Every structure is written in C-alpha cells, then in structure tokens.
Amino acid sequence: AQSVTQPDIHITVSEGASLELRCNYSYGATPYLFWYVQSPGQGLQLLLKYFSGDTLVQGIKGFEAEFKRSQSSFNLRKPSVHWSDAAEYFCAVGGGKLVFGAGTILRVKS
Amino acid sequence: GAVVSQHPSRVICKSGTSVKIECRSLDFQATTMFWYRQFPKQSLMLMATSNEGSKATYEQGVEKDKFLINHASLTLSTLTVTSAHPEDSSFYICSADLAGGGETQYFGPGTRLLVL
C-alpha cells in the first residue's frame, strides 16, 4: 500500500537559514511525488512535483526537492527561508489518487 | 490559470440538516474531481473521486449515502453532507484534475463545516 512519512511534525528555523523537510514514501511502482504548502484555513498550493527525469526538481518560491530512489525519499529544501514561508507542508505520493503525509509545520524565527 | 473555487468557505448548521458544498474549476474543465477531508492538525484523507457523468468512487469507510457527490458538468462537483452530525465537522477540500490522470490536481481553498 502507498504511504508517506513526514518524520518531523514541527520545525523551527531562523529567517535566512536553510531548510530541509523530510519525506519518505512507500509505493509499489515508480512514484509521482509532490510537495504542497498550506497556510492556515486555506487550501493547498503545489510547490513542485516529480514524475520522471532529473531527480532534482525546482519549484515555486525558491523550493527544490531531490528524489532518491535508493532511500525512498523526496526531501524538500530551500537555501534561505523567509518569514512568509511559515506554513504547513505536505508531501504526497500518487498515480491517480494522492496519499498525503501527516504534514510538517514550519515556524520561522525572526 | 488552474483556479479552483469552493463555496461556501465556511458554514454552520444544526445537527440533522443537510449541507451542500460546491467545487468549481474556473478556467479549465475537469473530468475528475476529488473530495478530501482534513481534521484539525491532521493530513488530508481522500473521501471520494468524482467523475463527470458517472457515479463517484468512494474510499473505504466513507458512507456514500451520507456524503452525496454529484459531478454534473466538467466544471462543477458538489458534496452534500446529509443529516449532518457534530462528528462531521471538519475542513473539506476539493481538487480538480487538470490533465485527466490524477497527477495534476489543483486544490480549492476549502470549506469549514461546523455542525452544532
């Protein structure tokens, strides 16, 4: 069965510091992988997605993620966090239906 | 582009009444739309897949007679929570599939339902 694990429930980083949010997945075939961001009381916005090809994918707002098949991971990174990045981030896997991880809440210290 | 709206954004209703939530793709046609439910501080759980012109496909454990889904056009899907109870209070989010394979979903802003 498909599953997604986001090990960190909360992460706090200082503004300007680098960020890495972890995501591990379980999927029976080549996965489609996604990262979404959700602000409080809002829907989800797609940051980036991986279908195939280059394992380092670039997204919006300066985010990137790297697909590592050997580690079943798809970690999200950003070199310099801005206060406006504070939100909840969801990793998802799917090929039709999406299965979401539990989410990681990012807090940014000024 | 690829904007999805939901109406209403929040609704409060009395126990036993029915509530309809609309999901619209504003600038594209979507053969498939999805309905998710999100409990506080939890992730999204897929409730059902809505296909235009056919019956919705419900996930295991979701009562199809309680959560009625209608996808009458390529831009509109509705979720009706029938005989709502306090435990149905939740955040309901829809998504519309742009490409048809489920891999390119655009999400609505969500509907907060509170059943008193």
Main attributes?
heterodimer, A: 110 residues, mainly beta, B: 116 residues, seven-stranded mixed sheet, four-stranded antiparallel sheet
Q: How would you describe the overall organization of this protein?
A:
The complex is a heterodimer of chains A (110) and B (116). With 110 residues, chain A is mainly β. Chain A has strands spanning 3-5, 10-14, 19-21, 24-26, 32-38, 44-50, 56-58, 64-68, 73-78, 87-94, 98-100, 104-109. In chain A, the strands form 3 sheets. In chain A, strands 2, 5, 6, 10, 11 and 12 form a 6-stranded mixed beta sheet that branches. Chain A has a 4-stranded antiparallel beta sheet with strand order 3-9-8-7, with no helix packed on it. The mean pLDDT of chain A is 93. Chain B is mainly beta and 116 residues long. In chain B, 0% of the residues lie in helices and 53% in strands. Chain B has no helices and 11 strands. Chain B has strands spanning 4-7, 10-13, 19-25, 32-38, 44-51, 57-58, 67-73, 76-81, 90-97, 105-107, 111-115. In chain B, strands 2, 4, 5, 6, 9, 10 and 11 form a 7-stranded mixed beta sheet that branches. In chain B, a hairpin with a 7-residue loop joins β9 (90-97) and β10 (105-107). Chain B is globular and about 40 Å long. The mean pLDDT of chain B is 91. The A-B interface holds A 32, 36, 41-46, 49, 51, 90, 94-103 and B 4, 6, 34, 42-46, 49, 91, 93, 95, 101-110, 112.
Relative strand content of chain B: over 45%
What is the CA-CA span between the terminal residues of chain B? 37 Å
Number of helical stretches of at least 4 residues of chain A: 0
Q: What's the count of strands of chain B?
A: 11
Q: What is the succession of H and E elements of chain A?
A: EEEEEEEEEEEE
